[in-house]
Amino acid sequence: MRFLPTSPEPVSAWRWTPAEPSRDLVGAIALSRELIDCFGPSGLIGRYEPVVGWRAEDGATVPWETLVMRPRATPAEAFAERILGSRPAVTPDLRPARLSFLGEGSVLLPEGKGSGRTHDGLIEVRALLHEEHLQFEVRVYHDIWAERDFFGTPQPEVHELNAPRLAAGLEAVEQVLGFPGTPGGPTFFGTPYNYGVSAHVADDGAGIDVSDRL
Fold it and tell me: What is the Cα–Cα distance from 107 to 6, expressed in whole angstroms?
């Protein structure tokens, strides 16, 4: 069975900042679910459980995170109440600063003959709840989207099977939000572009091994 390493930090990320004023928590949950559903048809996000990051009343981030269970079966209004009820008891005035939706999805590999292999954390959808506005991020942590793996080895079949699935999901997010996302800058592991990820290569075109950071 092929080894599928996960990077400790995002390989690539894309961000959307809607022009409209900040939504409330219920609106952020509802829109996050729409974005998650963009990756459902290709099997990139199935089961997921969100993690909530918190900030203090003065806007400072705090070190606590809360895992909230069974999000799909709960209406957005009730789920918002569940999130607020999960605040650490010693700090009841904390406000949600980040909703991170990271679950399991299906990887397509050549040896699987078209059938998927379930793996955790293929796509992360984030809602960033700032005081004045709302942002959304999509992050990826694997090398299956790029032409080369983390060891610098070409993987044309893996790329052909999986890169179009990521592109379709990012395009669907763009359609839901009504404008294109902004690719983040290059990371140690790769460089995002509009709808995909490029692996790093040397000046002579050879692949670069970035596995020492895994």
Answer: 13
Q: What is the DSSP string of 10-53?
A: -SEEEEE--SSPPP-HHHHHHHHHHHHHTTTTTTS--SEEEEEE
Q: How many other CB atoms are there within 10 angstroms of residue 213's CB atom?
A: 11
For 138, the token pair is 């999509």
Q: Return the domain boundaries, the chain.
A: 12-213
Could you read off the pLDDT of 142-171 as tens digits, one per residue?
Answer: 999 999 999 999 999 999 999 999 999 999
- pTM of the full structure: 0.93
Confidence of residue 105 (pLDDT cuts 50, 70, 90): very high
Question: Nearest-CA neighbor of 128 among 34, 199, 25?
Answer: 25
DSSP 123-161: EEEEEEE-SS-EEEEEEE--STTSSB-TTS-B-HHHHHH
